[in-house]
Amino acid sequence: MDGILKDNDISHVVKADKAHVWHHLIQHKPFETNDPRIIIEGKGMRVWDQNGKEYLDAVSGAVWTVNVGYGRERIANAVHENLMKMCYFANAAGNIPGALYAEKLIEKMPGMSRVYYCNSGSEANEKAFKLIRQIAHKKYGGKKTKILYRDRDYHGSTLAAMSAGGQDERNAQYGPFAPDFVRVPHCMEYRKDELGLGHLSGRDFGIAAANQIEDVILREGPETVGALCLEPVTAGGGVITPPEGYWDRVQEICQEYDILLHIDEVVCGIGRTGTHWFGYQHYGIKPDFVTMAKGVASGYAAISCMVTTEEVFEMFKSDPTDKLDHFRDISTFGGCTAGPAAALENMAIIEEEGLLENCTAMGERMMGNLKALMEKHTIIGDVRGKGLFLGCELVKDRETKEPVDEADIAAVVADCGAQGVIIGAANRSVPGRNNVIAFSPALIATAADIDTITNAVDNALTKVFG
């Protein structure tokens, strides 16, 4: 830290930040009288702000990213070594870490074959959307351009990604959006009354929820629908795990109507859900496209990947003299070696330290703790999640399921922060449904870490709701 500051003290950094930095996702009016929080150091699962306050980070960098924890010297060294040898060359040519990481990644993804490098989850999803549209022209005479997306799912902040965004508050004031993106209903069993399926449960509900996707396809015309884009577990829209039978039926529908399946693993990928490397692998899904970002390099370098099958790849191999037939796309920093170099070390750490298994075990512990809190606090209406990716939906009344106010959610988050624990929450996303507190601690979490997090939540719920 001293080397970065050089002749500037931390007060100068705060002043410069207030004067010149436009932060993500927040209103800056309060900074006229208050200082922004600046995180200056991290180690393991702990971070420290400019005032020296220590926090246990229960959301892996606030956006589900730092899967292997802070301060991993071996990742930093790998990035340094590759940058010094060959920092960047446009990805029309290859590079050593890019080739080696693609090989390792595909080993973890049976049925997939090709890796396209880019630098954010939004961008990775854009690449898949472009491929789907190009396939519509190459194979279907310009038909089958429609891309279906799900209510409450999120696929990024670029304009096309927002066109496939199921969170209306995030989308507000940014339209008009790209055409031929069509919404399908969510699959949250806790809110099944919203879907007109309140009389169903379990597998019956899951199949019926998937059938509502088929209803949309038939309404739009199967000959116009090219792809379905879904998160395996809905993330920012409320940590929604799929009901039993849902994914089996979704795949049947895609096969019946010749629809490509695009799985967005930007949050769930690289071990976040435990046991498997990817969320979709829990459900026997056979995707045509898989996109990933956040945990790929645990935030040590910018990288995302759009992964597809050999069948899709082969569609874009043809006569080289046809200048329009290949995938005419570039991601400038997809050619930077820092990303795949960091990703290789990140994957090695997960394997060597058994972090998939730890994620499963600590996820079970956290789920047990949260369910115990549910017995104590009637304000908790539902607990759900998979691995170290969990959420609690807070309601004023369990019978009516009326959501608590968003201000109350903010108060719980703030109280946990005052206790030195950073948790997450749905906010400014789904109108009237921003009532979920969320947890995604690093895969290195210990039992003591998990208990510290849930104890803080217990204290906060008691303080805010009594």
UniProtKB/TrEMBL annotation:
Keyword match Cell membrane: no
Any one Gene Ontology molecular-function term assigned to this protein's record: pyridoxal phosphate binding
Stated name of the protein: Taurine--pyruvate aminotransferase
Alphabetic keyword roster: Aminotransferase, Pyridoxal phosphate, Pyruvate, Transferase
Matches recorded under CDD domains: OAT_like (cd00610)
Lineage: Bacteria, Pseudomonadati, Pseudomonadota, Alphaproteobacteria, Rhodobacterales
Presence of keyword Glycosyltransferase: no
Domain of life: Bacteria
E.C. designation(s): 2.6.1.77
Enzyme class: transferase
Protein's organism: Shimia marina
Gene: tpa_3
Cofactor: pyridoxal 5'-phosphate
Assigned protein family: Belongs to the class-III pyridoxal-phosphate-dependent aminotransferase family.
Family matches, as InterPro entries: Aminotrans_3, Aminotrans_3_PPA_site, PyrdxlP-dep_Trfase, PyrdxlP-dep_Trfase_major, PyrdxlP-dep_Trfase_small
